[in-house]
Amino acid sequence: MAFDIKSYQQYHHDIKIGITKSLIENYYNENDGNVYVSFSGGLDSNVLLHIARQVIPTMKGVFSNTGLEYPEIVKFVKTFNNVDIVKPKMRFDEVIEKHGYPVVSKRISRYIKDLQNPTENNVNVRNLRLTGISSVTQPGKLQKSMQLPKKWLYLVDAPFKISDVCCDKLKKEPLNRYAKETGCKRIIGVMADESDMRMQQARRDGWSGKDLLQPMIFWTRLDVLAYTKLHNLPYCSVYGDIKDGQHGLETTGEHRTGCMFCMFGVHMEKGENRFQRMKKTHPNQYNYCMDKLGCGKVLDFIGVNK
User: I want to staple 5 with a disulfide (CB 3.0 to 4.6 A). Which of 40, 90, 198, 202 is the partner?
Assistant: First the structure.
């Protein structure tokens, strides 16, 4: 039976906090304290770490410094005690050189990667990406979600490689390595309202994943902003101020931080996009991204202003 994420999202803010605290406490006890909060320095994980340390004051945080974070984020993370910092084995320029650029979304990038790298062993997968018709697991059945949408087919012939592995190499790999070396399990601050993929994953898994807990999966962006204001939490300056907007609380700066050079979802941003803002606020990083890393040619190819 699917996890009823929609119902949980409608719960009162205080009830959500109580459920999250209980989940964290139970997970901590079940694993004899061998857990940590994956702390990115962003608003979501900032709230998560605050709640976790209300329950377990000694809760450790772990920050994966990919080399792509806003400098303000790195500085903010270093103001916290009991936070370990891990780093990936590859740099972003090495990832895009070997595997390809992250564009559109993780799902679309993965499908394009399959089609850009034909081998004798992935014939069935490539056919699935082109037609949506399975020839292995459910022969002859149309699976639209497995097909690359026609509007993105032109990217298969792009003069650069595209891939979905960037996050795996730069963020997940060092965290997985840390978990393996320490025997600790992760508590992460992902939320279902971040994307359709997250929503599907939430319906399937609820708040439990493989060797991890996601106790805020049923929270919303507005919940995070409300909690931050209510508890007067310090947060990274790159977000600007938290103020009332047309649809409730919103930030006057960046909406989300993540990796500065990631191009996932930028084509959907209305008005001034993240790269146009970066050009004004972080010109050195912008020039490096556009010219040295070649992201400028990628944005030009997908029709995104920069």
Answer: 202
- 221 and 74, same domain (yes or no): yes
Three-state secondary structure call for residue 162:
strand
Kindly list the distances between the CA atom of residue 24 and the CA atoms of 42, 57, 59, 71, in Å, as whole numbers in the listed order. Answer: 19, 12, 10, 30
12, 32: one domain: yes
Q: Check if the beta carbon of residue 69 is closer than 8 Å to that of residue 249.
A: no
Range of the domain at 296: 274-301
Q: Classify residue 262: in a domain, yes or no.
A: no
- 55, 59, 65, 69 alpha-carbon torsion, rounded to 10°: 20
The string of pLDDT tens digits covering residues 114-134 is 999 999 888 989 999 999 887
- The pLDDT value recorded for residue 1 is 63
Residue type, 100: G
- Report the alpha-carbon distance of residue 185 to residue 212 in Å, rounded: 6
Amino acid at 76: F
